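Appendix C. Worked example: Single-stranded DNA-binding protein
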Amino acid sequence: MNLVVLYGRLTRDPELRYSQNGMANTFATIAVDRGMSREKRQEAEANGQPTADFIGIKAFGKTAELLSNYFHKGNRIAVEGRISTGSYEKNGERVFTTDVVVNRVHFIESAKESGNMGANPGGAGFNAPPTNMAYQSADAGNNANAGGFGPKSDDEGYYPIDNNDIPF
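Step 2, the predicted output written as structure tokens:
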């Protein structure tokens, strides 16, 4: 199963573009905290080592438009999607890419916090509980929330799996 869930902050505003056939698409980068203890974080920072990973995300259709219209640099965001790999030629050399193709976006902060460009007046940081609002693209396979916005139910998209059905 190719499933990714990321929680972090946007490092720049999403870039909305349209393909020749009119399909919206966007690209952005999320800084995802590595979840280190305070001591490990201080040690890593002192040694010039990263404490976050910067992960490229791609979105298409309504999800791309939503990202572009409502999310900005510094906003906290959670996304669900899948890993996508690819390659292209640059100066005669093959460059390999790994991105997350987003099929669901979660609003993590309130409009008031978003207006403050990610300011954190409550001091909650990455450990703050997420809000219960989500957007799911129409092609994500579950049309129970076809309107896109609104509270998601606790069991939306989840179902019990028998251990005999797992291939490993």
